[in-house]
Structures are given as structure tokens and as C-alpha cells.
Amino acid sequence: MTPFLQIENLSRSFPGPRRKDPPTTIFQEVNFSVEKGEFLCIIGHSGCGKSTILNILAGLDEATDGQVLMEGREISGPSLQRGVIFQNHSLLPWRSALRNISFAVQARHRDWTRQKVLDHCLEYVRMVGLTGTENRKPSQLSGGMRQRVGIARAFAIQPKLLLMDEPFGALDALTRGNIQDELLGICEKTDQTVFMITHDVDEAILLSDRILLMSNGPDARIAEVVEVNLPRPRARAELIKLRAYYAIRNHLVEFLIHRSRDFREHPPEDFDPKAPPVFSPGLSLNAFPPIPIGGIP
Amino acid sequence: MTLLTLKATVLSIVLLALALAAWSFATQPKEGQPPGGRVPGPAKVFVHAATELTDPFYDNGPNDKGIGIQLAYSIGRVLAGYCLAALLAIPIGFVIGMSPLWRKALDPFIQVLKPISPLAWMPLALYIIKDSITSSIFVIFICSIWPMLLNTAFGVAAVRKDYVNVARTLELGRLRTAFSVILPAAAPTIFTGMRISIGISWLVIVAAEMLVGGTGIGYYVWNEWNNLNLNSVIFSILMIGLIGMLLDLSLARLSRLVQYAD
Lengths: 297, 262
Known about the structure:
The complex is a heterodimer.
Chain A (H helix, E strand, L loop, with lengths): L4 E10 L9 E11 L4 E5 L6 H9 L6 E6 L2 E2 L7 E4 L11 H12 L5 H14 L15 H14 L4 E5 L7 H18 L2 E6 L2 H7 L2 E5 L7 E6 L8 H4 L3 H20 L15 E2 L18
Parallel strand pairs in A: 3-8, 3-9, 6-7, 7-8, 10-11
Antiparallel strand pairs in A: 1-2, 1-4, 4-5, 9-10
Chain B lengths: L2 H24 L15 H13 L12 H32 L1 H14 L8 H8 L2 H26 L3 H9 L4 H39 L4 H10 L3 H27 L6
């Protein structure tokens, strides 16, 4: 069976600063797939081309080589089937929160009546907990509220694939935690397929089913795939009691500190870009009893 | 009223009083000078202004019309030339802002045409159009087109790429993107250009009317100079300033409607 989303041999290079310079390859031979309903995170240091991959999936950028197939068909250009939540929320500042959402809904459902659009939007305003503030302009909302509007806008058009580019990067830790919990709830409820970029290891473990680890750019690749075998529904407070959580976390942190940097010079001998090694650091530990409150003895 | 506003108001009044006193002092009659050949003092001008403003719209033939009629002629010409310019400048500015090709192609023309004093067009306009009124409207048109054109182009080109990307991911067509995303995003910059243009138009109409004559505030000033009626000259200078301020204020008020906080 073909996967929902298949990325084959993707690479992207930019021309050098001067004409005679060789082009710089940001990433190359990127292969992965996303199943329907899966939450996939991608982690890597700045400059490895995560955002470029996401933009290619969104149709806002074009790959130098390779292709992206969604439900077996090659994507070309942006589409309402692929919703995007941008890093800096990208709300239109002259429209209220509600009108930002309705702008998207009207584009998606051109035949809907005004009332139907409004009802639909208000439902998503309620979903992200903004009821009562929906008529404010983005400048009158806090950073967290703005990002909630962005989430509501993306979910309201019910895309088949949701793309998120570090959606919580600009938020403080407490707000980020709250919105992550909300997003987790919404995704588990709607069975949304998500591809997300993050820098935050804990965020990735909390939300994802699988995590792609990218080596440092230029010439970045997907070096490893980590399976997050943690039970759902998840709650932050429960996750941190599991040993498996720390096993996954340590694996990711070690990658980011050492292996992401060393990968280009010393790739594993049997490395196959078509099938990067898959790790399940939490699996062997899942049977262990939960850590008692108070932390690891 | 805040304390700062209060202080500023008091200071403004003091400065006004000082200026009036200096004006009054400088125009005092001197020993051995004939009484007629002086610049009138503030008292005389204000008395004259009061009589003019009690009946601003009288019409006693071509050489004796009220200040209101003259100003109305000028404002009418300014608005006609200005609106025509806006109708042309904003769409062209939009295209230039959207398309690097058009920007590059039109740039040399704009660079050459922009620095030409609008009054330099007057002889050519008079020869081709053969009508002084239309020619002065044309001069207003040509002088107010540039700030609007360049500001529109700049505003459109500077629209944040994120907003355009939002439109792209929503599969909006080019036209809908232009009207529902780029236009509102660039509107504050476009209005800045419109505000500069109306100011320039009001500067230019006085000079244009001095050249073509007939009616209008510029003609009025020159005519009163020919009559050696300095009371009227000073009075109309003040009125030109007042109307210019009102034109600017009304555009400032309008542009507040399209402002947004980022």
C-alpha cells in the first residue's frame, strides 16, 4: 500500500554567491513517508534545511531534485489540502482573529453562506479557547493567543496534511506548554496528519509518533529515525514518570550534541539514504515500572 | 488635556502674540514716509479679513470675486487633477510593485519625468490642450502622480512575504490576493503618498493659476498685487495656508481608516 505522503530523493541546492562558485547543497537524498493520522516531527540544527523541506511540502518552494507524492500524486504548488502554521503566526494584522479564520474558511468553501462560515469559524475559535476575544485584532492579542488563532485558522480548513514550522518557537515556556497540550488534544481528537519542525526535544516527544533527525547542513541528510513508543493519550505529567521518556530524550540530545555534527565526516558504514536507521530507544524500557514521584533514585 | 498639550498651547499663543507684536511694530508709520506705501499691520489685515469672510461668495464680475469662490475654483482643480492622478498612479504603482520586470522597464522614464518642475509642462499643455483651466488641471495631475506612484510601488513591493504565502496556501487567485491581501497591507504606505501628493498639488496650483489667470486663489493673489492691495495679498496667503492644512488633515483622517498595528 502506498503511504499517504511519500518523499523521494528530495534535494535542494542554492547557487553560490558568485556565478562561478559551485552551488551549495542544503540537503540531499531525503526519503521518508508519513502515514495517515501520523504526527511526524523533524529535528535538526539551524541551517539543515528543515524549513526548506516544509516549504517544499507546502508548495511554496521547489526541490532541486526528487519528488513529493501525496496519496500517490505528485504535488505542485500550494494547496488547500496542505495547511500551514507559520513560525511567526502570519495573521493578517488588519483583520480580527475571527476574520482571519473566516478568510481561510471562505477560501476553502466558496459556496458556503456567510452564516455557515461564521458558525464553522466560531467552533474553531472555541476549540482553541479564544471565545470572547475573537473580535480583537492580532496586535491586541498576546503571542500565545495569536498562535492559537493561527492553529484555529489551519485546522478550520480541515487540510489533509498540516505543516507546522516551529509554531511555538517565539513563545515563553509556560505558554508553549499550554498550547502544546491543547494541540495534543486537538490532534488526538481529529486524527490530523501533521508534519512539524521543532527545536524542542520535549515538544517532539510529547507530540510525535516518529521523529526524523537531520544531520547538520550543508549536505544535510536524515541521519536517523526515532520511534516514540509512548502510550496515547499522552499527558506531560504522566510522560515524565516513564523511563522510556528519558531513554528517548537522551537519544535525541546525544544526537543533537554529537552525531548530527559528526555525520558528514563519519557516516555509518552501512548508511542507506533510502532507509535511514530506525531506533526505538523507549521500547526496551517500556515494561519497566513507572518512576516513583520524586524522580529517578 | 494633558499637561504637555496645555503647555504647548500656551507656548503657541505666546509665540503668536510675539509674532503679531513684531509685525505690528515693523509696520508702524515712520517720520517723513508717505502714508500709503507701507505693508499693512495686523489690525488692518484682520479688519479686511473680517469683511471678506462675512461675504466670501460675492461675484461682481471677472475681476472682483469673493475669496470663497476663488478658493473653490482652486480646490476644484486640485481635486480634479489629483483624482485623475490617483486613478492612474495607484494601479500603475501596483503593477510596478508586483512585477520586477515592469519596475526595471519603467524606472528610467520615472527617473527622468519625476524631477521636471510641473510648471515646465505648462506651455506644452497650453499648446496642446488650448484651454487654460484644463492645462492647470493637467499640471496638478502631473505633479501629484509621482509620490502616489512611487509610494504605491514601494508599499506593494514591501508587503511581507508571509502574507502572500498565506494567500498562496489558501489557493487565492492573483486578483483576490491583490485586493484582499496586498492592497490592505500596502494601504498605509499608499496613503502616505496620497498625502504628500495633495500637499504638492496645493503648492503648485497657486503658481499655475498665477500663470494662466482668470480664476482661482493664485490668480487672486497676483491680481491683488497688481492692484497693490497688500491687505488682500496677506489675507489670501493666510487662507492658502489654512486650506492646505485642511486638505492635509482630511487625508490624515482618511488614512487612519486603513492603518493597522503590526
